[in-house]
Write a structure and sequence with these properties.
A 6-stranded mixed sheet has the order 3-2-1-5-6-4, with no helix packed on it. It starts with a helix and ends with a helix. α1 packs antiparallel against α2 and α3 runs antiparallel to α4. The protein has 2 domains: 60 residues; 124 residues. A hairpin with a 5-residue loop joins β5 and β6. The chain contains 4 helices and 6 strands; from the N terminus they run ααβββαβββα. It is elongated, with a radius of gyration of 40 Å. The chain is α+β, with helices and mostly antiparallel strands and 211 residues long.
Length: 211
């Protein structure tokens, strides 16, 4: 880059010198004389004045171009920008027979679906209590990987009960652009208190609607 700038500066300087040399030659080489017609020839002071105007142009032409700033990448979001469209899925496993105690799915539109052996009393109204808790929940940050939906998987809270039913809650939140965020937690009756309070409240409110 330095060599290119030096070469460009030299080329421009040589060009200006040639122009000045031709101009001075045509006007008598810079010596003050008076012709028979009474016209003043080019003077050395005029040559100096020409250089005053040409040097700034030479300086500007040899300056480095202003670098274009590199575009800054927008940081990937760590939480959904909208929570109005969500699905809450509760499933169970384990227990004395290893089959769990059933489960249910609840959506933000109020659609409630139960899985055997659990039975639901029927469709529910708009799940206002659950919806409010989802909107205000302190969701943990999720790292988004390009080409996949962000997911937060909390480790199963280990308990001392070997025959207890294990409950798994999956909260899926879909943004308007189709991106789906998933938060999944598991616990048994002895470890429910270790679940973050916001998720525990969501589960308890949804379970009350599914009775």
């Amino acid at each position: 880059m330095f060599e290119n700038r030096k070469s460009r500066s030299l080329s421009i300087s040589q060009a200006l010198i040639k122009v000045l040399d031709r101009t001075l030659s045509s006007y008598g080489g810079g010596v003050f004389t008076r012709s028979d017609t009474g016209m003043n020839r080019w003077t050395s002071s005029s040559a100096a004045l020409l250089m005053v105007f040409l040097l700034p142009a030479l300086s500007f032409a040899t300056q480095d171009p202003v670098p274009t700033p590199a575009p800054t990448e927008k940081a990937a979001p760590t939480r959904p920008d909208s929570r109005s469209d969500w699905t809450l899925e509760i499933s169970t496993s384990g227990g004395l027979d290893g089959k769990g105690s059933g489960g249910f799915t609840l959506t933000s539109a109020g659609v409630l679906t139960c899985s055997l052996p659990k039975k639901c009393s029927g469709p529910t109204a708009a799940p206002t209590p659950v919806h409010g808790l989802v909107i205000t929940a302190n969701l943990p940050p999720a790292k988004q990987v390009s080409g996949s939906n962000p997911t937060v998987l909390s480790p199963v809270a280990a308990g001392i009960c070997m025959d207890c039913v294990v409950t798994t809650m999956s909260l899926r939140i879909r943004e308007s652009n189709g991106l789906e965020w998933t938060y999944s937690l598991s616990w048994d009756p002895t470890t429910l208190s270790s679940i973050p309070s916001d998720f525990r409240q969501i589960f308890q409110a949804a379970a009350a609607l599914a009775k």
